[in-house]
Design a protein that fits this description.
By secondary structure, the chain is of the alpha/beta class. It contains 4 helices and 40 strands. A hairpin with a 2-residue loop joins strand 39 and strand 40 (about 310). The longest helix is centred in the first third of the chain and has 16 residues, at about 80-95. The N and C termini lie far apart (about 85 Å). The model has no long low-confidence stretch (mean pLDDT about 95).
């Protein structure tokens, strides 16, 4: 799909300087811009590229001053980075604007489908499922019995949503996600043999949640596993049974959260973090990558390490960690000197 400079300026409330009929059909970095591409200039250190770029249209700040001849059409806006992000979102909406029901598919007679939905080929929709308006479900998805999906949610290819799961409005769930599989519940007998503990709860995902590819969120043993409004989850994250993740918390890839742990609001959790079960993590907590959490964490703490401790204490201690062989050698020499009088 092609867009003219005049159309883009209208979307962004910007001003065209150059050819309003200039057309683009792709996006590019400013240093890699070619004819027919749209780019932007936000960081001053890339300013030199605006005089050499071959991009047809460049978004710049409204106060930008031209000091050399340029070949690109400018669109002047208040915030180029924000404007370019707006265009990316708009482009994504256009690109993903699918509708209709593809064949083959299976939809149970008891399922309720909203208006203007997209259901990709080879998808399965079980008994008593409720799907809202403008929902997009890409091919090869499984929607189990009694699942509810809110308006404007997008579910990409290969997602598995087990029975009784509730998903809110405007969520994005990427390929390979599994929601509502059994929690890891087993009870050993006196011989060491494990018996499965039935997992009869569900998963509740509130509005505006993003879930990255390959992530798994387990159903509760009893009650619900909760992912609150606005949570952002990266790829390949494991969230166990009865966990609660608070509003607007962000979790980076390969993090594992064990059962029944409660995480507060607006937390930032780095990649490959391991959090033990039955803990309480406060609000606005920052956990650095690869940390191991085995204790409750208070509001506003920043922690690092495995087992983790205060972030500033960790950085101070790390200096000594690196010098530990030298320190031990000096200590041994002092002990020998003392022994020899």
């Amino acid at each position: 799909m092609k867009f003219k400079a005049s159309q883009i300026a209208e979307i962004l409330n910007g001003t065209v300087e150059g050819d309003p009929e200039a057309e683009v059909d792709k996006l590019a970095k400013i240093e890699e811009g070619s004819k027919g591409s749209l780019t932007f200039l936000s960081n001053p250190k890339y300013t030199s590229y605006i005089y050499t770029t071959n991009a047809s249209i460049t978004i710049v700040k409204d106060t930008f001053k031209i000091e050399q001849p340029i070949n690109t059409t400018l669109i002047r806006v208040g915030d180029p980075y924000k404007a370019f992000s707006t265009l990316l979102e708009y482009y994504n909406q256009v690109k993903l604007n699918k509708s209709g029901i593809e064949n083959p598919h299976f939809v149970d007679d008891t399922a309720q489908l909203g208006e203007n939905i997209y259901l990709g080929a080879f998808s399965y929709v079980g008994k008593n499922v409720k799907i809202g308006d403008d929902v997009k479900i890409y091919p090869n998805c499984y929607i189990g019995d009694n699942v509810t999906i809110g308006n404007n949610t997008v579910i990409f290819a290969g997602v598995r949503i087990y029975s009784e799961t509730i998903i809110g409005r405007e969520c994005i769930i990427h390929g390979g996600v599994v929601i509502g599989a059994d929690g890891f519940g087993f009870s050993p007998d006196e011989t060491g043999k494990y018996s499965k503990v039935p997992q009869i709860g569900n998963v509740i995902i509130e509005d505006s949640v993003d879930i990255g590819a390959g992530t798994t969120i387990d159903r509760a043993t009893l009650g619900s596993t909760f992912i609150r409004k606005g949570v952002k989850i990266d790829n390949q994250v494991q969230i166990a049974h009865n966990v609660e993740v608070g509003q607007n918390t962000a979790i980076a890839a390969q993090t594992g959260i064990a059962g029944s742990t409660k995480i507060g609001q607006n937390c930032l959790i780095g990649g490959q973090v391991g959090i033990a079960g039955h803990l309480t993590i406060g609000n606005r907590v920052k956990i650095q990558a690869q940390s191991g959490i085995g204790r409750n964490i208070n509001d506003d703490e920043a922690i690092q390490g495995s087992p983790s401790f205060g972030y500033s204490d960790f950085n101070k201690s790390y200096v000594h960690f690196k010098n530990l062989p030298k320190i031990v050698d000096r200590l041994n020499k002092l002990e020998k000197k003392q022994e020899n009088g």
